[in-house]
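Lesson 9: reading folded outputs for more than one chain in a single document. The general rule is that every protein is listed as its sequence immediately followed by its structure tokens, and records are never interleaved. Here is the first one.
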Amino acid sequence: MRSMKSCTLRRISALLLALLLAAPAALADDLASDLGGGYVAADPNAAPPTEVDMTFADVVIGYIEPGFAEISPVRCTEWDMISINQLVYEPVVDMDDSMKPIPMLADNWEQDGKYWKFNLRSGIQFHNGLELTAYDVVASYQAILASGSANPYYARLSMIKEMQAMDVYTVIVKARNSSLLTLYAMNFPVMQYETVNDQIPRGTGPYWYIQYDPDGTIRLEANPLWWKKQPGVQSILLRRYDTPGDAIEAIQTRQISMLSTKSPKASFSRKLADLTSLDYPTLTYEMLVPNLSSSSIMSDINVRKAVMYAIDRSLLAANAYLDMTIQSEVPVVPNCWLYESQSAIYYYSPERALQMMNNSGWIDLTGDGVLKKKNGIMLQEPRIQIITYNESTNSIREKAVYMIKDYLEAIGITVSVSVLSRDKVRDRIKHREYDLALIGVNLSEIPEISSVVGTDGSLNYNYYSDNLMDMYITAAHSATNEETLLKAYSDIQLTIADQLPILGLVFRTGTVLSSRPIGGLSGLRAYDNFNGFEFLK
């Protein structure tokens, strides 16, 4: 990366436009090989590069990075840069606005059980003029997988057992199961294979990196070799900020014209008349984890249902989560094509909540507004202990948990709250020393929810196990067509609503703030905050 700091691609753009598109293939290959890993032409007799303007561009975007950002998809782990990279690198399979897989670098595919054949489009060129091949796809897959679990694409690539190039335009994949979900595994950035180890590998996307300065300022320009219609915005300037607060202040003072952020501090800026905003779901799912052991009152399904009916999630989202949420009782984003709308059954109803408690014998026997149940000659009160933790930058969950406490006490349940460290909450859940735990979990961008409700799921913190649920999950993992997959996902979500192994609340959202029109952006998601940017004028 250090070699990039004082380098420019201005003359490369001119050379590629003037020579690559008109020159014989051999000349194009020679020129491309000269570009190497530092984005500097190797010819010492070439004309000096034109000065790059690092103070102005068509659009100036702020990004959050406390240090020097890694750009390469092999090493990049920061959310903001991952989204920017979507403008530079393209996947074999993309996702539409409903998160359904659609063709991108591959224009079609065929499935035979666990084996898939992806047929790449011909004539697509990387930023160095070389044509996209199956070998580039395989090299990108291998490099990202080798980078380890910290890479945001690692989990989805782990769904693939083996990948190889059958020929120049054909990629053969052996998946770990026969599910249609394998298509999501092919949604990873493809880099030109000779450059995968470079600080900035070559991509095929609508933009390419021009310059990266020591202060974190980065310039991108429209890729003249792009295989689709040329973008409307020709130049982008990225300005680095240490904290979300700094970046939000920058857009309010017009130092930048666009910003994507998940920070709750953006909730006020979303309401400013001179700024346009567009929200998108993040991968953070907020839920109440019930203690299902017999020692807890939450082992009673009626009590779990009562809790769900007792909470006004609309007010919870607006007041505690600052209206930066999407309500969902199941861990599937409602705009996803696999979402089952009939799983949304727990509307706010204190009367219904009280009826659920009455069904389990909890009644206001003394007229003091506190529910009780006869236990021999004694009267027992329903008591719920809720634990949670705060994030390092805000106390949103603490506010949320006290709102939940008020809702439950309004129907006659005695509630105690403990706000602990994240590690302490994890320890208390492990040892089942709680009744409810308000936590946030980061799900996969792939709509894969077995991690939360599957018997061996990594996010199954309360050890929930149900044979019927596992059967539905197995069906999802073997579904080879959309109809079967939709049925399996519907069954999973309806079972969650019926059994309440978790008490789902909301997905957290981020927002794109802009001082300029952003019509064209659509289908924004956690790893792609600027989807459709190439359509902006």
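And here is the second record, again sequence then tokens.
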Amino acid sequence: MSTDQATHDRPEGTGGSGTKPRESSRRLGIQPFNVLRYFSWASFAVIALVFVASGSLTVYVVHCVHIETEEDEADSLAEAFVGALKPLGLDQTKWPQDEAARQVQGELPRMLDNFNVLEFHIFSPAGDSLACLGPEARDEYPPWAPGLKAAMDGAVKTRWEAENWWRFLFPDRSKRDIIETYVPVKEGGRIIAIAEVRRDLAKTLGRTRRSLPQLMLVAAAASLSVFLCLRVAIRRADRIMRQQRSEIERINKELEQRNKYLEAYDKRKDEFLSICSHDVRSPLMSIVAGCQVLLKGRKGPLNDVQREIIEHSVANAQAVIRLTEALLDLARIEAGQEALNLDHFDPVQVIRESLAAHQAQVESQGVAFDLQAPAHPVTLKADRLKILRVCNNLVSNAAKHSRHGVIRIRVETGNCTASGAGVLRIAVTDCGQGIKPEDMERLFDRFSTLSRRKRTRMEGTGLGLSITRALVELHGGTIEVASQEGKGATFTVTLPLVCEEQAPPASVLGKRVA
């Protein structure tokens, strides 16, 4: 391919100019995430929740504090009022009518007004009403039974008419903020009376309610400040993330274009290999045929020098033919165009044919074959010619790397019973130098350079093992290698096996599958 054509085929815009991130995102299935917007909504929800929770907690604490404070003040007021009423007695029906009693009765309303007391009720230790003072005493307000009982047991009990604490935040304007406390009055370690103190908290609660909005305003200002600071940081992070997302989208688009570019070149490469292999193989076959005619003496006798030159030319031409055939086979397999002509045959017989074809080569190298095969007949359903080629590649590879030793070929079956099929294992072990651990990973790669590292004195194309693996995998099998440097290598092929008693009739043999 010319340079001008390669330049013309190169995808445009690979440098990132003209890329539209939003269109690229939709095309690549990327959903942009607006960090700033989601952060704003989430922060608003969190701040609102925290604001309501903190306000509710504050109101609840204020409510509890008022209850506790009221119990202490009511206890002190009860002691003071009971002490003032002792000269009159604690039973209102028995109060004297002298001048001193009238003076005490005149001071009591002022005391009640000073402490915002609406009603001061005295009960006996048994719970009987003895006296009731205050502006609302005539209302015959019924006593609170749980509070009275608690006071009879020696405890202080308080009830706020706005019993729900949240009413402090949302008061009911139709009701007064009245709080009542039941206090046991003791003298000499015994309870002499029980006092009920009902007071109006309007003034006290008014001051608290007026300060509450200021407190909430301070909390809101603090929350807003934190929100703004975080928003500045998130905005900067969002800008960086947008830039990074745009860069990723640009790179993805560039990679997509380059992948299409490489796919097109890979297709052209396959076409080139097919055309080149065919155009190279055809003239070489003619050259080999012409040389063989000369070697047979049909065009006249040859001297020794001429014969040596022609034999050398034939050997080189045949090597190139084998290379082109290997390239064609590999291209067909990778393109999925290789077909299997399935048949049932004895794989041991195929291995024997392969060994016989390489017998002269190994004998010249001082190497012998040792075949170990099962005694019972074995039937394999596969493409016979392709399995023969697999065996030839493995045996030829072992022969090239062995010197003065024994090449062991072991054939065995596994899990083959009368109830089902199993597997066939063919292991070929050479007596060569072995394979280095760093070379194991790329042993089956195309055009492997292991043979060019002086591993042996014989050169190869580097396609034999690659084609072998492709043919084995085409049959649904696997190939593995185990080697220890200096002790040879073992290549093991595993293929699905059909037992002899499971073999189908001859009418279905030779079926062609793609």
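What the second record shows: The radius of gyration is 53 Å.
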